Amino acid sequence: MKNPVGIISMQYIRPFNNGALHYLKKTRELGFDFIELLVPEPEDDLDPAEVRRICEGEGLDIVLAARVNLQRSIASEDAANRQGGIDYLKFCIEAADRVGAKIIGGPLYGEPLVFAGRAPIRGRPRRSPSARNAPSTVWPRSRPWPRLRGRSSASRR
Asked: Domains in the chain, please, with CATH?
């Protein structure tokens, strides 16, 4: 398999639990090579052995996505949180073994939101719901969107 293509289970449903196992077969039927699952937590009601059995039967690979938080950060300044991160990474490896995943993706370190491109800043005021829903200012409105190579603007409509 040169360039496998997959889908994260959250595209179907969240939380992904035993009641959602039929999506594993659907994933393969749609032509995907793997499914990405959040690292199963004990309270998730997800049977790792059953996930593994179904995926092996379907020829579907599994990739796990870690769930870091402030108490699970190997990059934390707080020793207890760093240890929580180390313990969580060990848990992720054990979970991957149980479910049959060969890859564990991130974020595997860092404070939440670092992977989204903005590290938390101590003392930053929390944004109000209306501010969170405001249009993005990441791309200046005065600049046109970049052209996609090989596609004219007419073909994007």
From this structure: 6-117 (3.20.20.150)
